[in-house]
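Dear H.,

Thanks for agreeing to be a second pair of eyes. The structure we're designing against is below in C-alpha cell form, covering all 121 positions.
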C-alpha cells in the first residue's frame, strides 16, 4: 500500500488523518461508533490531542534506476514517482518529466522499483 499523508494512532489502529487546528479528523470507510457519515462510504470523527497516541506524516520512498524517489501513487503495475536526488542532470538522464521547476516525476514500471518503504516523519 502506498501512503503519503498524515496518519494517527487511535485505540491501537492507524487511521488516515487531517490536522484541523489542535484537533485531528480521522476517516474510515465503515460505520463505527462516534463516526459521522459525510458521504456514502466515508465516515469522519474529530479527535482532540488527548484522544490519540501519535500523529505522524508517512511517505513512501523507493529507488528506481539507482536514484531516490518518493512514491506518489499507483495505477495497475505502474508507480508515479518523484525524484528526490536534487540533481537536474540526473533527472534529465533518466528522462523525467519536469512537473514544476526543479520537480521531476515519471511513471515507473512497478517491477523496476526497489527498496520501497515507508518513512515516518
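And this is the sequence the design step returned. I haven't edited it by hand at all.
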Amino acid at each position: 500500500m502506498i501512503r503519503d499523508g498524515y496518519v494517527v494512532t487511535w485505540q491501537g489502529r492507524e487511521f488516515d488523518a487531517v490536522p484541523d487546528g489542535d484537533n485531528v479528523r480521522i476517516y474510515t470507510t465503515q460505520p463505527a461508533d462516534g463516526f459521522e457519515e459525510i458521504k456514502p462510504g466515508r465516515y469522519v470523527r474529530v479527535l482532540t490531542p488527548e484522544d490519540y497516541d501519535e500523529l505522524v506524516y508517512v511517505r513512501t520512498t523507493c529507488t528506481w534506476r539507482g536514484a531516490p524517489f518518493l512514491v506518489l501513487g499507483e495505477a495497475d503495475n505502474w508507480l508515479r514517482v518523484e525524484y528526490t536526488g536534487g540533481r537536474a542532470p540526473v533527472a534529465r538522464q533518466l528522462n523525467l518529466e519536469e512537473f514544476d521547476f526543479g520537480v521531476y516525476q515519471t511513471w515507473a514500471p512497478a517491477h523496476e522499483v526497489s527498496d520501497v518503504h515507508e518513512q515516518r516523519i
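Two observations from my side: The chain has a mean pLDDT of 94. DSSP finds one helix and eleven strands in the chain.

Warmly,
E.
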